[in-house]
Design a protein that fits this description.
The protein has about 550 residues and is α/β, with parallel strands linked by helices. It is about 35% helix and about 25% strand. Strand 9 and strand 10 (about 245-250) form a beta hairpin.
């Protein structure tokens, strides 16, 4: 990676941002000192609430009015950004300092074509010539690797994939060739192959000497905010680690990844998913609790006067078994059909063919009324616990309502709810509190307790840890493993994170365009993948050079500090 000149491009000196009264600490960010050089990628890592995004928003002048810095300076090309009026900051945003946001769908205007949104960045900063703007928009769309620029620029955001929308955001951020690019978790929600493409794109841009518009910079400086240490290992020159608003460690990527000094950094790296070594052969001796045979599900859209009918074979002839105490992993990119399988298992969508034998009984053929008594036996842990928990009900009510609906008395259900909340590691007081009073990891524990309240035989976990910080993710995965062992539940674990699959699964299915292209143990799948698609997935996992002495598959399985 590129070297760093002596003079910083961006300097954050003694930055402190107080939190209004009632917060869990006095400062969102306290006495932060950071530097970013031209031609450098600085990764800022830490858990949710560590202050990393708050620091980036301070640079951009995007802090809310009630959380303004109380001390410090942010120097960019000799100017203190904290002392500039809004009109001056507005001129710098986009032209000199660009930003890529975490969720492009919420950052893009849904009723504007993406070409118009890129053009707006240029026009706001004084590029008025219509032909020049149109030419630049096409250039940017092509530069970030989007196909058919003339089609893309006339498309609305909802018609693009997640990776394509993120590329549009990058095009907007680069429209005026800024000297500094801030990327706030730009790949967190992306599939591993799309993530690899975006990381490679950012690296290639950063290395292409596309510095400030005056040509003075020797390369764009990138502040990359992430909680994924695989990404850090892939792209970082230097790393800054933040904990609860305090900068606890700064160093080169090699130093921080391979010889972390601070206990917090050590804990974060220790939590990176790695292969579980206690895979159980005993489960193979028990009868399947779930036996899926030749499952098919087709989606059809359009038709009639206004659109061409489109048919998608979401699940195409899929078969697998799951036994008590076994974890079956289903991995693949978005659109591979893995989440549709989960919905079929819970009969949240209709099945177009095949059988789903639950303890020998074909539930695929059952009507909604006939399946209702069995619904308690197959439960789901959802990806976003906050969206799936009723914000107007207490946690105790959320966990106990299912058993009450299934025939238990309110007293019995509430007693069981208290037991389960304790079992998943929450305090007694959690029973009377509301979902908004909990962190993301705690809400996921509530979702697990709710799923267990009906004593299910099968749990379907659909991307249940993908949005969690690495340390919280490790806690939730360990909890699921402990509960599964104690209760002998069959677990169907749906994920696009191959490192997590390597850690928790006994058997892994690799899905591509609705079909299973490969199946086997984690050892087989990750050490010796046979299908070209599986090989591409594994090759795209970031940070494999972190352990360069081992083969890629083995490095993936044993990745640690």
């Amino acid at each position: 990676m590129s070297g760093s000149p002596a003079t910083p491009l961006l300097q954050i000196e003694g930055l402190s941002i107080p939190i209004p009264g009632g917060g869990d600490r006095a400062f969102a960010v306290q006495d932060i000192h950071l530097t970013l050089h031209a031609g450098e990628i600085l990764c800022v890592v830490g858990e949710s609430g560590s202050g990393k995004s708050m620091s980036a928003n301070a640079v951009m002048g995007l802090l809310p009015s009630y959380m303004q810095p109380s001390a410090g300076r942010i120097l960019f090309q000799g100017q203190d950004l904290l002392r500039l009026p809004e009109t001056a900051l507005r001129k710098l945003r986009g032209s000199a300092i660009g930003m890529i946001f975490q969720e492009p769908l919420s950052a893009l205007n849904p009723v504007m074509r993406v070409g118009d949104q890129i053009a707006e960045v240029l026009e706001v900063h004084g590029v008025r010539d219509t032909a020049q703007v149109a030419k630049r928009v096409r250039e940017l769309i092509a530069f970030v690797g989007l196909p058919d620029p003339d089609v893309i620029r006339h498309s609305y955001p909802f018609r693009l994939s997640g990776g394509q929308r993120q590329r549009v955001m990058i095009a907007m951020a680069l429209a005026l060739e800024p000297a500094v690019l801030i990327a706030d978790e730009p790949t967190t929600a992306l599939d591993v192959t799309t993530q690899a493409q975006i990381l490679a794109l950012i690296q290639s841009i950063q290395r292409s000497k596309r510095g400030g518009s005056d040509g003075s910079a020797s390369g764009m400086g990138v502040m990359f905010i992430t909680h994924d240490f695989g990404v850090v290992a892939e792209i970082a020159d230097r790393v800054a680690v933040m904990e609860k608003g305090v900068l606890v460690e700064v160093g080169t990527a090699t130093q921080v990844l391979n010889a972390p000094q601070h206990p917090y950094t050590q804990r974060l790296i220790a939590a990176v998913p790695r292969r579980r070594i206690d895979l159980r052969d005993a489960v193979a001796d028990s009868a399947p609790v779930l036996d899926v045979r030749n499952l098919k599900k087709t989606y059809a859209t359009g038709g009639g006067w206004f659109a061409t009918r489109r048919v998608v074979q979401a699940v195409d002839d899929v078969s697998f078994t799951v036994r008590r105490g076994e974890t079956l992993g289903i991995v693949g990119e978005s659109g591979s059909g893995k989440s549709t399988i989960g919905k079929c298992l819970l009969k949240l969508v209709s099945v177009d063919g095949g059988q789903m034998l639950f303890n020998g009984r074909d539930i695929a053929a059952l009507s909604a009324h006939a399946f209702r008594p069995l619904r308690k036996d197959i439960q789901m842990i959802f990806q976003d616990p906050f969206a799936s928990l009723n914000p107007r009900q207490t946690v105790g009510r959320i966990v106990s309502d299912g058993p009450v609906a299934s025939g238990k008395t309110r007293a019995q259900a509430e007693a069981r709810a208290r037991e389960l909340l304790t079992l998943v590691g929450l305090e007694d007081s959690s029973f009377d509190r509301y979902p908004n009073e909990f962190s993301g990891g705690q809400r996921q524990r509530i979702g697990i307790a709710r799923a267990l309240a009906l004593d299910p035989q099968v749990l379907v976990a659909d991307e249940s840890v993908s949005a969690l910080d690495v340390s919280v993710q490790a806690q939730v995965l360990a909890l699921l493993h402990q509960l599964q062992q104690k209760l002998q539940i069959a677990l169907v674990f749906i994920t696009h994170d191959l490192r997590v699959a390597a850690q928790v699964c006994d058997t892994v299915l690799v899905m591509h365009r609705g079909r299973i292209v490969e199946r086997g143990s984690p050892q087989q799948i990750f050490d010796d993948p046979q299908h070209a698609y599986t090989q591409r997935l594994i090759a795209a996992v970031p940070g494999q050079q972190w352990n360069p002495t081992q083969a890629p598959g083995a490095a993936l399985l044993s990745q640690a500090a």
